[in-house]
Records
---
Amino acid sequence: MRRGLFLWTFIIFFFTPTSGNSQINESQTGTWYMYFFNTTFKESSWGFQGDIQYRNLNLIGDLEQLLFRGGISYQPKQTQIKLTIGYGNITNGTSTSINSINLENRIYQELMFPIKFGNRIQTNHRFRSEQRFIEGQDLRTRYRYNLFINIPLNKTSFESKTLYLSIYDELFINGELNTGDDEKVNFFDRNRLYTALGYMINDQIKLQLGFMSQRTSNWNRTQLQLSFHHNIQHCTKKMNNIKPNSSQSIPTASIRYK
C-alpha cells in the first residue's frame, strides 16, 4: 500500500505541467517520459489499460504535451485480438505563446493483434480511431496504424533478464480536415519511427530507452524516450497456492510482453 502511494505521489509530482517556450525548434532533441500499464479483471476477458506521458521539447521543463489515457479492454477467449475503448486528457504546449497551453479531450477505439514470425520475431499490429475535442476547434477525427516489432537479443524468447530490440512505425491520418474558423489540417498528420533497446528485468517489469524521429508536413523532430511498462495482475489465484504462515511473498504486479 505504501509503495503504491509513493508511486502515485511521484507520478503526480513529476508529471505536473509547467509552462515553457513551446515553439518548434527542429534542431533541438526532445525527451518523452512514459509509464504504460495494463491489468485484467480476475479471470475474465475484460481489463483496463492506459498510459501517462510527459513530453518535453527539451530535456525537461519545456512542455510539449502531458497525456493521461486509459481504457476498458476486451480480449475474446481463445483469440489474440484485444479491443479497447477509452478516454484521454491532453495538455498541449502551444507554438504561438511562450506561456500558453491548450486542452484536448479524446475518445478512442483500438484493435490490436500479434503475429509471430519464426521463433524470435514478434510483431503487434494496432489500429486506433480517435475523436478529438480540442479547445477552440471543431470536432476532429484521426486514424492511426502502428506496426511494433520486438526481437530478443540474448535469449531465444522473452523471459526474465532478456535484452531486446524494439522497433515501431506509426502512421497518422486526419479524418475531418476542417477545424473551424476556415482553418484546415492536412490529410497526412504525422509519422513516427522509433528504435529502442529494452530490458525485461523479470516477468514483472520492462524498461525501454529509445530514439524516435517524428515527421509532419511542416517539421521534423527527434525525441529520446524512456518508458516503464507495467502489467498489474490480480493475485487471487497466486494467494491460493501459498500455505498459511508461509514466508513466500505475494507478487503484486507483472509484465506481459506485447
Note: The CA atoms of residues 145 and 201 lie 29 Å apart.
---
Amino acid sequence: MGLSVRIVGCGRSFMGDDQAGLLVARKLQQSTSLRADVFCDEAPGDRLAGELDENVELLVIVDAALADGNHPAGSSERIDYRTGADALTERLHGSTHTLGVVEGLKLAEVLGVLPRHVWIYVIFGTDFERRPHVSPTVGSEIVPLARRIESDVDHWLASRAGPPGTDLADGPAEPNPITQPGGTKPIAFRRP
C-alpha cells in the first residue's frame, strides 16, 4: 500500500482572512500532480479524529491565525505538531471553529488515530470580520503557500522512498522557513 497524505484546509467562509486555509486547499485540489487527498473543513476539530485512519501517514492542516509583531499579515509558518505543539497552541488560540484545530489534534492523539507526521501551516491575517474575500495581503500568499505545501509534500514522499526498512523522513532536520512578504527568514525545524 502506498503512503497516504491528507491535507485539510480549515477556516470559515465569508469571514475575511479566516477563509485562507480553505482557499489554499481549493488551490491544492486543482493540482494534477499532488499525491494527497485534499479536503476543506469549516469545523475541523469536530471531525478530525473521526476522519483519520491508520493509512494516513502525513496529515497537513492549513489554517489562519491573527497576525502579531512576530508574524505579519501575509506571512506563513509550518509547525511540526510533534515538536511544536506549544507554538501551535499560541498561534491558533481563540479559534473561530466549534472545536479548534488544536483540540481536534489532541483528541485524535488521545484516540490513537493521529498520524506520526503532522504539519500545520499557519497563514497570518488581520481581518476576521464577515466579508466574502480575504485581505489583499493574505490573498497574495494563497498561491505561493499552496505551491510550498505541494513541494513539501512531494519532497517528503520522495524522502520516504528509500531502501526497505528505512524511514528517511526522520533524517536530518529540514529548514522551516517563515515566509514573509518579500523574503524568508529561516527557523530551525526541530525533531524529537
Note: The beta strands are 4-10, 37-41, 56-66, 76-80, 117-125, 178-180, 183-185.
---
Amino acid sequence: MTLLLRLPIAPQPNQRAAWGRFMSNFLSQAQSFFGLNILGTLITAAFGAIVGAWVASRRETKRSVIAELNTINAARALCFSICSKFINMKDQHILPLHRDYHMDREVVIGTLDAAKSGATVDPIEVPYNLQTLTPIWLPIQTLERLVFEKISIRGRGLVAAVEIISCIDALEKSINYRNELIAEFKKEPMSQRQKMERYFGLRVPGIEMVDERFASSVAALYNQIDDCIFFSRILADDLFEYGTSLRKRFAWRYRLPIPKLTRDDWTPAETKGLMPNQDRYANWLQAFRTSPTLMQRFRGWVRSVVAGGNP
C-alpha cells in the first residue's frame, strides 16, 4: 500500500496580490461599517484607560489622605485626654504627696538632730499620708491601634508612643506597690519612733540596713507621672506636626474638606508648674535632632538679613 504525501504549495504572486486586495477591501468595508478609524479607536481606548486609572488612583489617594487626617485628629484627642488625666493626677495627688513628704521628712530629721544635741524639742506629730491611689483607666489600646496601624508617623513620635506604654505600666506598678506598703504599715504594730523610721527611711541605731521603700516609692511616682506627661505631650505635638505637613502636601491638590489643625494649648499646666522640666529629657531629645536643610538655612539667613542682623 502506497501513501501519498501532499506538500503545501507556496502561493503564487497572483494569489498574494489577490489576498492583499481582499484584506484591503475588508478593512475598507470595516471602516465604512463602523464609521471610525481602528487605530484611532485603539489610541482613544488606551488614553481612556490611562485617564480612568489616574482618576481612580487620585480618588483613592484622596480618600486615604482624608481617612489618615481624621485618624490623626482622633489620636490627638486621645493624647490630649491622656496627658490631661496625668496632669490632673499630678496636681491632685502626686505633687502634694511628693512636696509634703520631703517637707515633713526635713522637719523630722531636724527635730531628731536637735534632740541628739541636747536641745529641748516638742513632741513630733507626723501627718503620715497613707492615702491609697487608684490607677487611672486610659484608652491606651485604642491609641496604640491608631498610631501603629493607621498613621504613618515615624521618628520621635513613634518612639514616644512606645515610651508611653512603658511609662503607664511602670506607673501602675508603682501605685500598686505603694498601696501594698500602706497596708503593711497599717497592719504591723510599731512605736512612734519605728513608724517615723519606716515611713521616712531613717537610719536605725545598730542596724545597717535602712528601709527606704516609702521614700523610693514617692520618688518613683513623681518621676513616672512626669514621664507619662512628657511623652504623651511629645506624641500629641508630633501628631500635630505630621498632620499639618500631610494636609499641606495634599490640600491644594485634592481640595481636602479638612480644616487646619490647631496646636494643643498647654499654657494652664505650664503656668501651674505641672509640666516636667525638659532638661531631664535632654539626652532623649538629642537623639532626634536633625541638621537643618538647605532651604531652612536659607530661610534663616533671609530672616537675619530682614531683621538687620549679620547674614
Note: Residues 43-288 form one domain.
---
Amino acid sequence: MPFVRKSSADIDTAALAADLARARARTEEEIEAEAIEDGGALTDEELARMVLVPAATKPGAIRALRDRLGMTQSEFAIRFGFPIEVLEEYEAGRRIPFGTDRILLRLLDVDADAVLHMLDPAHTRTKQSAA
C-alpha cells in the first residue's frame, strides 16, 4: 500500500473516524497473513532479539539542560566529568554522545536532582526540578 502525505487541513477527520468505525477487527491470523504478504514483517523471534537504541541527544537539548541547571560549560563539564572540549563538541553538534555520556545526559534530563544528590548527598532539590 503506497503512503500518501497529507496536511492536517487535507484530512477529513469525520470521514476517517467513520472509516475506522466500519473497519472490522482482524484476527491474529489475518494480521500474520497480511504481514507475510507485505514481505517485510519481523517474526516474534526477530523482535525478541532486537535491542532498543535511544534516540541521539540533540545539540540544543544539551545546552538547554545545562542552562536549566544554571551551569556554565566549565561547571557542567567539571561536575559531571566531561572534558570541556567534548562538551563543546556535543553542544555544537560536531560530536554525538554515546555510551556512558549518553546515559548520563539522559539521566540528567529525566531527573537532574537525583543525579546531583547521588554525586553529592548534601545537594538539595531545586525549584526548577521540583516543578
Note: Residues 10-49 form one domain.
